[in-house]
Amino acid sequence: MKEKLTNNLNLKIIAVLFAAGLWMISININDPYQSKDYSVVVQLQNVSTMTSTGKYVEVLNDSDEITVKVRGSRSVMDGFTSSNILATADLTKIDENNRVPINLSAIKTSGSKIESIRSTDTHLEVKVENIRKIQKNLEVVTKNVPSDGYILGKVSTEQNALRISGPESAVVLVDKAVVNFDLQNATDDVSMILPIELYDAEGNKITDSRLTTSINEVQCVATVLATKEIPITVTTKGTPERGYDFTGEIICDPQKVLVAAKPQVLRRMNRLEITEAIDLQGVNESVITTIDVREYLPDNVILADQNFDGKVQVTAVVDEIFTEEVKITGEQIQIVNVPDGISGTIKDLEEEITVSLIGFVSEKDNFDEKDVKAKVDILSYMNSNNLIKLKPGTYEMNVRFELPEGMRTEDEFLVQVKISEK
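Predicted structure:
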Protein backbone atom coordinates (compact mmCIF):
# COMPACT_ATOMS: atom_id res chain seq x y z
CA MET A 1 0.00 0.00 0.00
CA LYS A 2 2.79 2.29 0.96
CA GLU A 3 4.48 1.56 -2.25
CA LYS A 4 1.36 2.52 -4.16
CA LEU A 5 1.13 5.85 -2.33
CA THR A 6 4.77 6.71 -2.83
CA ASN A 7 4.97 5.39 -6.34
CA ASN A 8 5.37 8.33 -8.72
CA LEU A 9 4.99 10.76 -5.77
CA ASN A 10 6.36 13.70 -7.63
CA LEU A 11 3.89 13.27 -10.38
CA LYS A 12 1.08 12.99 -7.89
CA ILE A 13 2.13 16.22 -6.12
CA ILE A 14 2.33 17.99 -9.43
CA ALA A 15 -1.17 16.75 -10.27
CA VAL A 16 -2.60 18.05 -6.96
CA LEU A 17 -1.00 21.44 -7.45
CA PHE A 18 -2.22 21.55 -11.00
CA ALA A 19 -5.76 20.70 -9.88
CA ALA A 20 -5.65 23.41 -7.22
CA GLY A 21 -4.42 25.88 -9.78
CA LEU A 22 -7.21 24.95 -12.12
CA TRP A 23 -9.69 25.44 -9.25
CA MET A 24 -8.26 28.90 -8.43
CA ILE A 25 -8.36 29.83 -12.09
CA SER A 26 -11.96 28.68 -12.23
CA ILE A 27 -12.89 30.68 -9.14
CA ASN A 28 -11.18 33.84 -10.42
CA ILE A 29 -12.89 33.50 -13.70
CA ASN A 30 -16.37 32.77 -12.33
CA ASP A 31 -16.29 34.81 -9.00
CA PRO A 32 -13.20 37.02 -9.03
CA TYR A 33 -12.06 39.09 -6.03
CA GLN A 34 -12.29 42.85 -6.22
CA SER A 35 -11.79 45.93 -4.01
CA LYS A 36 -14.10 48.89 -3.51
CA ASP A 37 -13.90 52.13 -1.51
CA TYR A 38 -16.77 53.26 0.73
CA SER A 39 -17.44 56.50 2.63
CA VAL A 40 -18.30 55.72 6.23
CA VAL A 41 -19.11 57.83 9.29
CA VAL A 42 -17.49 56.63 12.50
CA GLN A 43 -19.92 55.94 15.33
CA LEU A 44 -18.87 57.36 18.70
CA GLN A 45 -19.15 55.06 21.67
CA ASN A 46 -19.46 55.97 25.38
CA VAL A 47 -20.42 59.60 24.70
CA SER A 48 -22.72 59.55 27.76
CA THR A 49 -19.86 58.24 29.88
CA MET A 50 -17.75 61.26 28.98
CA THR A 51 -20.67 63.63 29.51
CA SER A 52 -21.35 62.20 32.97
CA THR A 53 -17.79 63.07 33.95
CA GLY A 54 -18.26 66.67 32.78
CA LYS A 55 -16.33 66.31 29.54
CA TYR A 56 -17.37 67.37 26.05
CA VAL A 57 -15.66 65.58 23.15
CA GLU A 58 -15.61 67.27 19.75
CA VAL A 59 -14.42 65.56 16.58
CA LEU A 60 -11.94 67.73 14.68
CA ASN A 61 -11.28 68.15 10.97
CA ASP A 62 -14.16 65.85 9.99
CA SER A 63 -11.96 62.94 11.01
CA ASP A 64 -15.09 60.85 11.67
CA GLU A 65 -15.73 60.74 7.92
CA ILE A 66 -13.38 58.08 6.60
CA THR A 67 -12.81 56.05 3.43
CA VAL A 68 -12.80 52.28 3.91
CA LYS A 69 -11.38 49.83 1.31
CA VAL A 70 -13.08 46.43 1.26
CA ARG A 71 -11.85 43.40 -0.71
CA GLY A 72 -14.11 40.46 -1.38
CA SER A 73 -15.56 38.20 -4.00
CA ARG A 74 -17.58 39.75 -6.75
CA SER A 75 -20.70 37.91 -5.65
CA VAL A 76 -20.39 39.57 -2.26
CA MET A 77 -19.23 42.99 -3.39
CA ASP A 78 -22.07 43.39 -5.85
CA GLY A 79 -24.50 43.66 -2.95
CA PHE A 80 -22.14 45.31 -0.47
CA THR A 81 -22.81 48.93 0.70
CA SER A 82 -21.41 51.30 3.29
CA SER A 83 -24.18 50.16 5.65
CA ASN A 84 -22.41 46.79 5.80
CA ILE A 85 -19.41 48.47 7.43
CA LEU A 86 -19.30 49.24 11.11
CA ALA A 87 -16.74 51.89 12.12
CA THR A 88 -16.59 52.73 15.83
CA ALA A 89 -14.45 54.79 18.17
CA ASP A 90 -14.55 54.29 21.94
CA LEU A 91 -14.15 57.74 23.52
CA THR A 92 -12.94 56.22 26.77
CA LYS A 93 -9.77 55.24 24.88
CA ILE A 94 -8.56 58.75 24.06
CA ASP A 95 -4.76 58.83 24.14
CA GLU A 96 -2.48 61.62 25.33
CA ASN A 97 -2.53 63.18 21.87
CA ASN A 98 -6.33 63.38 21.88
CA ARG A 99 -6.64 60.61 19.33
CA VAL A 100 -9.13 57.72 19.41
CA PRO A 101 -8.47 54.45 17.53
CA ILE A 102 -11.02 53.48 14.91
CA ASN A 103 -12.24 49.89 14.83
CA LEU A 104 -13.55 48.44 11.54
CA SER A 105 -15.69 45.39 10.97
CA ALA A 106 -18.03 44.10 8.28
CA ILE A 107 -21.63 43.24 8.88
CA LYS A 108 -21.61 40.14 6.72
CA THR A 109 -24.52 38.75 4.83
CA SER A 110 -25.14 35.03 4.43
CA GLY A 111 -22.45 33.38 2.36
CA SER A 112 -20.36 36.52 2.22
CA LYS A 113 -16.65 36.28 1.69
CA ILE A 114 -14.62 39.31 2.76
CA GLU A 115 -10.90 39.06 2.36
CA SER A 116 -9.99 42.39 4.01
CA ILE A 117 -11.43 45.65 5.36
CA ARG A 118 -9.09 48.50 6.15
CA SER A 119 -8.64 52.27 6.08
CA THR A 120 -5.75 54.65 6.01
CA ASP A 121 -7.68 56.67 8.62
CA THR A 122 -6.87 54.81 11.80
CA HIS A 123 -7.68 57.43 14.47
CA LEU A 124 -10.17 60.17 15.23
CA GLU A 125 -8.80 63.59 16.07
CA VAL A 126 -10.75 65.04 19.00
CA LYS A 127 -10.81 68.00 21.34
CA VAL A 128 -11.81 67.48 24.97
CA GLU A 129 -13.28 70.36 26.98
CA ASN A 130 -15.03 70.81 30.27
CA ILE A 131 -18.81 71.08 30.04
CA ARG A 132 -20.10 74.39 31.35
CA LYS A 133 -23.67 75.22 32.37
CA ILE A 134 -25.08 78.74 32.80
CA GLN A 135 -28.48 80.38 33.25
CA LYS A 136 -29.61 83.47 31.34
CA ASN A 137 -32.67 85.64 31.84
CA LEU A 138 -34.85 85.95 28.76
CA GLU A 139 -34.83 89.38 27.12
CA VAL A 140 -37.81 90.33 24.95
CA VAL A 141 -36.95 92.69 22.09
CA THR A 142 -39.99 94.27 20.47
CA LYS A 143 -39.81 95.06 16.77
CA ASN A 144 -41.96 97.67 15.01
CA VAL A 145 -44.78 99.45 16.85
CA PRO A 146 -48.54 99.06 17.24
CA SER A 147 -50.95 101.08 15.08
CA ASP A 148 -51.28 104.85 15.49
CA GLY A 149 -53.11 105.71 18.70
CA TYR A 150 -51.77 102.62 20.48
CA ILE A 151 -48.64 101.80 22.48
CA LEU A 152 -47.03 98.73 23.91
CA GLY A 153 -47.87 98.08 27.55
CA LYS A 154 -46.46 95.16 29.53
CA VAL A 155 -44.66 92.24 27.90
CA SER A 156 -44.52 88.92 29.74
CA THR A 157 -43.14 85.45 29.02
CA GLU A 158 -44.27 82.05 30.25
CA GLN A 159 -40.72 81.47 31.53
CA ASN A 160 -38.21 84.21 32.27
CA ALA A 161 -34.95 82.22 32.18
CA LEU A 162 -33.28 79.24 30.51
CA ARG A 163 -30.28 77.00 31.09
CA ILE A 164 -27.51 76.72 28.51
CA SER A 165 -24.87 73.97 28.41
CA GLY A 166 -22.05 72.92 26.11
CA PRO A 167 -18.28 73.10 25.77
CA GLU A 168 -16.81 75.90 27.84
CA SER A 169 -15.32 77.71 24.85
CA ALA A 170 -18.78 78.01 23.29
CA VAL A 171 -20.79 78.77 26.44
CA VAL A 172 -18.59 81.71 27.48
CA LEU A 173 -19.51 83.51 24.24
CA VAL A 174 -23.20 83.65 25.14
CA ASP A 175 -24.07 87.16 26.31
CA LYS A 176 -27.87 87.11 26.22
CA ALA A 177 -30.91 85.05 25.31
CA VAL A 178 -33.42 87.00 23.22
CA VAL A 179 -36.98 86.64 21.98
CA ASN A 180 -37.83 88.93 19.03
CA PHE A 181 -41.48 90.06 19.20
CA ASP A 182 -43.00 91.77 16.13
CA LEU A 183 -45.92 94.08 17.02
CA GLN A 184 -46.45 95.86 13.71
CA ASN A 185 -49.96 97.38 13.38
CA ALA A 186 -51.24 95.68 16.55
CA THR A 187 -54.43 97.14 18.06
CA ASP A 188 -55.05 94.48 20.70
CA ASP A 189 -53.11 92.14 22.95
CA VAL A 190 -50.77 89.76 21.10
CA SER A 191 -49.90 86.21 22.21
CA MET A 192 -47.34 84.11 20.30
CA ILE A 193 -44.96 81.18 20.76
CA LEU A 194 -41.55 82.50 19.68
CA PRO A 195 -38.09 80.94 19.23
CA ILE A 196 -35.28 81.83 21.60
CA GLU A 197 -32.07 83.14 20.03
CA LEU A 198 -28.61 83.46 21.57
CA TYR A 199 -26.31 86.45 20.96
CA ASP A 200 -22.74 87.32 21.82
CA ALA A 201 -21.57 90.58 23.38
CA GLU A 202 -21.22 92.22 19.97
CA GLY A 203 -24.80 91.42 18.99
CA ASN A 204 -23.95 88.55 16.65
CA LYS A 205 -26.39 85.65 16.57
CA ILE A 206 -24.94 82.38 17.86
CA THR A 207 -25.86 79.23 15.91
CA ASP A 208 -23.39 76.81 17.50
CA SER A 209 -24.94 73.32 17.37
CA ARG A 210 -22.77 72.27 20.31
CA LEU A 211 -24.92 74.36 22.63
CA THR A 212 -28.07 72.95 24.16
CA THR A 213 -30.81 74.94 25.91
CA SER A 214 -33.44 73.87 28.41
CA ILE A 215 -36.14 75.40 26.17
CA ASN A 216 -36.06 76.40 22.52
CA GLU A 217 -39.21 78.56 22.40
CA VAL A 218 -41.47 80.41 24.81
CA GLN A 219 -45.01 81.79 25.01
CA CYS A 220 -44.96 85.62 24.92
CA VAL A 221 -47.86 88.00 25.63
CA ALA A 222 -47.80 91.72 24.81
CA THR A 223 -50.42 94.10 26.19
CA VAL A 224 -51.41 96.76 23.64
CA LEU A 225 -53.00 99.94 25.04
CA ALA A 226 -54.98 102.75 23.43
CA THR A 227 -53.83 106.36 24.03
CA LYS A 228 -55.70 109.59 24.81
CA GLU A 229 -54.66 113.16 25.57
CA ILE A 230 -56.48 114.61 28.57
CA PRO A 231 -56.24 117.94 30.48
CA ILE A 232 -54.90 118.24 34.02
CA THR A 233 -57.13 119.81 36.66
CA VAL A 234 -55.74 120.80 40.05
CA THR A 235 -57.63 121.90 43.19
CA THR A 236 -56.30 123.83 46.17
CA LYS A 237 -56.93 123.91 49.90
CA GLY A 238 -56.51 126.55 52.58
CA THR A 239 -57.05 130.34 52.67
CA PRO A 240 -54.36 132.92 51.82
CA GLU A 241 -53.26 135.64 54.24
CA ARG A 242 -55.76 138.45 54.91
CA GLY A 243 -55.62 140.98 52.08
CA TYR A 244 -54.74 138.27 49.53
CA ASP A 245 -56.80 135.72 47.67
CA PHE A 246 -56.60 132.91 45.18
CA THR A 247 -57.50 134.21 41.72
CA GLY A 248 -58.86 130.84 40.65
CA GLU A 249 -56.21 130.57 37.97
CA ILE A 250 -54.04 127.45 37.95
CA ILE A 251 -51.30 127.14 35.35
CA CYS A 252 -50.02 123.65 34.51
CA ASP A 253 -46.95 122.98 32.42
CA PRO A 254 -47.73 120.83 30.52
CA GLN A 255 -51.48 121.45 30.48
CA LYS A 256 -52.28 118.00 29.07
CA VAL A 257 -50.86 114.51 29.36
CA LEU A 258 -50.98 111.54 27.02
CA VAL A 259 -52.19 108.47 28.90
CA ALA A 260 -52.67 104.85 27.87
CA ALA A 261 -55.09 102.16 28.97
CA LYS A 262 -57.62 99.75 27.60
CA PRO A 263 -60.20 101.53 25.38
CA GLN A 264 -63.07 100.89 27.81
CA VAL A 265 -61.11 102.63 30.57
CA LEU A 266 -60.18 105.65 28.44
CA ARG A 267 -63.79 106.19 27.38
CA ARG A 268 -64.64 107.07 31.00
CA MET A 269 -61.58 109.26 31.52
CA ASN A 270 -61.86 112.88 30.31
CA ARG A 271 -59.40 114.59 32.65
CA LEU A 272 -56.76 113.88 35.25
CA GLU A 273 -57.92 115.26 38.60
CA ILE A 274 -55.30 116.21 41.18
CA THR A 275 -57.18 117.12 44.35
CA GLU A 276 -55.93 119.37 47.14
CA ALA A 277 -52.44 119.26 45.76
CA ILE A 278 -51.61 122.89 46.60
CA ASP A 279 -51.90 124.34 50.12
CA LEU A 280 -52.66 128.09 50.11
CA GLN A 281 -53.10 128.47 53.83
CA GLY A 282 -51.61 131.81 54.97
CA VAL A 283 -49.70 132.56 51.74
CA ASN A 284 -49.30 136.06 50.27
CA GLU A 285 -47.95 135.14 46.84
CA SER A 286 -48.48 132.62 44.08
CA VAL A 287 -47.53 129.06 44.95
CA ILE A 288 -45.40 127.06 42.48
CA THR A 289 -44.90 123.37 43.00
CA THR A 290 -43.98 120.25 41.03
CA ILE A 291 -46.40 117.34 41.02
CA ASP A 292 -45.74 113.81 39.83
CA VAL A 293 -48.98 112.99 38.02
CA ARG A 294 -48.14 109.28 38.05
CA GLU A 295 -49.25 109.22 41.68
CA TYR A 296 -52.75 110.29 40.61
CA LEU A 297 -53.27 107.92 37.69
CA PRO A 298 -56.09 105.40 38.17
CA ASP A 299 -55.32 101.71 38.23
CA ASN A 300 -54.49 100.20 34.84
CA VAL A 301 -53.64 103.65 33.39
CA ILE A 302 -50.07 104.63 32.50
CA LEU A 303 -48.29 107.55 30.84
CA ALA A 304 -48.02 106.92 27.12
CA ASP A 305 -44.96 109.10 26.45
CA GLN A 306 -41.82 107.27 27.56
CA ASN A 307 -39.86 110.52 27.39
CA PHE A 308 -42.17 112.21 29.94
CA ASP A 309 -41.20 111.64 33.56
CA GLY A 310 -44.62 112.61 34.92
CA LYS A 311 -43.41 115.85 36.52
CA VAL A 312 -45.80 118.81 36.03
CA GLN A 313 -45.09 122.34 37.27
CA VAL A 314 -48.24 123.82 38.77
CA THR A 315 -48.75 127.47 39.66
CA ALA A 316 -51.70 128.61 41.80
CA VAL A 317 -52.01 132.37 41.27
CA VAL A 318 -52.45 134.41 44.47
CA ASP A 319 -52.86 138.19 44.28
CA GLU A 320 -53.36 141.10 46.64
CA ILE A 321 -56.98 142.27 46.78
CA PHE A 322 -58.57 145.74 46.83
CA THR A 323 -62.13 146.87 47.60
CA GLU A 324 -64.24 149.36 45.73
CA GLU A 325 -67.72 150.71 46.55
CA VAL A 326 -70.21 151.28 43.75
CA LYS A 327 -73.61 152.96 44.18
CA ILE A 328 -76.57 151.58 42.23
CA THR A 329 -79.88 153.45 41.83
CA GLY A 330 -83.24 151.83 41.18
CA GLU A 331 -83.18 153.11 37.64
CA GLN A 332 -79.93 151.23 37.01
CA ILE A 333 -81.44 147.90 38.00
CA GLN A 334 -82.61 146.00 34.94
CA ILE A 335 -85.55 143.60 35.05
CA VAL A 336 -84.89 140.66 32.72
CA ASN A 337 -86.53 137.42 31.61
CA VAL A 338 -90.08 138.70 32.11
CA PRO A 339 -92.72 136.14 30.97
CA ASP A 340 -95.27 137.16 28.36
CA GLY A 341 -98.42 138.87 29.68
CA ILE A 342 -96.85 140.60 32.68
CA SER A 343 -94.50 143.47 33.42
CA GLY A 344 -92.33 144.35 36.38
CA THR A 345 -91.01 147.55 37.97
CA ILE A 346 -88.75 148.33 40.92
CA LYS A 347 -90.93 149.68 43.73
CA ASP A 348 -90.07 152.34 46.29
CA LEU A 349 -86.25 152.22 46.03
CA GLU A 350 -85.64 155.63 47.48
CA GLU A 351 -81.97 155.16 48.47
CA GLU A 352 -79.06 154.01 46.40
CA ILE A 353 -77.61 150.56 46.91
CA THR A 354 -73.96 150.58 47.92
CA VAL A 355 -72.19 147.48 46.65
CA SER A 356 -68.76 146.53 48.01
CA LEU A 357 -66.66 144.95 45.29
CA ILE A 358 -63.51 142.90 45.77
CA GLY A 359 -60.89 142.60 43.06
CA PHE A 360 -57.23 141.85 42.45
CA VAL A 361 -54.66 144.61 42.45
CA SER A 362 -53.20 143.35 39.17
CA GLU A 363 -56.52 144.15 37.48
CA LYS A 364 -57.30 147.40 39.31
CA ASP A 365 -56.23 149.66 36.44
CA ASN A 366 -58.77 147.96 34.20
CA PHE A 367 -61.70 148.49 36.58
CA ASP A 368 -64.55 150.81 35.53
CA GLU A 369 -67.68 151.04 37.66
CA LYS A 370 -69.71 151.53 34.49
CA ASP A 371 -69.08 147.83 33.80
CA VAL A 372 -71.06 146.88 36.92
CA LYS A 373 -74.59 145.78 36.00
CA ALA A 374 -77.47 145.08 38.41
CA LYS A 375 -80.33 142.82 37.32
CA VAL A 376 -83.47 141.19 38.67
CA ASP A 377 -84.29 137.93 36.90
CA ILE A 378 -88.06 137.22 37.01
CA LEU A 379 -87.86 133.75 35.46
CA SER A 380 -85.09 132.73 37.85
CA TYR A 381 -87.22 133.87 40.79
CA MET A 382 -90.15 131.79 39.53
CA ASN A 383 -88.02 128.69 39.04
CA SER A 384 -86.43 128.90 42.47
CA ASN A 385 -89.90 129.21 44.05
CA ASN A 386 -91.55 126.56 41.82
CA LEU A 387 -93.98 129.09 40.37
CA ILE A 388 -95.56 128.54 36.99
CA LYS A 389 -97.23 131.95 36.90
CA LEU A 390 -96.91 135.23 38.78
CA LYS A 391 -100.07 136.95 39.85
CA PRO A 392 -100.14 140.73 39.96
CA GLY A 393 -98.65 141.98 43.21
CA THR A 394 -95.41 142.90 44.92
CA TYR A 395 -92.55 140.39 45.35
CA GLU A 396 -89.20 140.53 47.08
CA MET A 397 -86.45 139.47 44.68
CA ASN A 398 -82.67 139.20 44.73
CA VAL A 399 -80.49 141.62 42.84
CA ARG A 400 -77.81 139.89 40.78
CA PHE A 401 -74.66 141.69 39.72
CA GLU A 402 -72.69 141.26 36.51
CA LEU A 403 -69.13 142.30 37.37
CA PRO A 404 -65.94 142.82 35.40
CA GLU A 405 -63.68 139.81 35.13
CA GLY A 406 -61.77 139.17 38.34
CA MET A 407 -64.26 141.13 40.51
CA ARG A 408 -66.69 139.68 43.02
CA THR A 409 -69.01 140.80 45.79
CA GLU A 410 -70.19 139.17 48.94
CA ASP A 411 -73.15 141.56 49.34
CA GLU A 412 -76.75 140.45 48.86
CA PHE A 413 -79.68 142.83 48.23
CA LEU A 414 -83.44 142.41 48.04
CA VAL A 415 -85.74 144.83 46.23
CA GLN A 416 -89.51 145.14 45.91
CA VAL A 417 -90.73 144.28 42.40
CA LYS A 418 -94.24 145.16 41.38
CA ILE A 419 -95.80 142.70 38.88
CA SER A 420 -98.66 143.92 36.70
CA GLU A 421 -100.69 142.39 33.90
CA LYS A 422 -100.23 143.88 30.47
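Summary: The longest strand covers residues 123-143.
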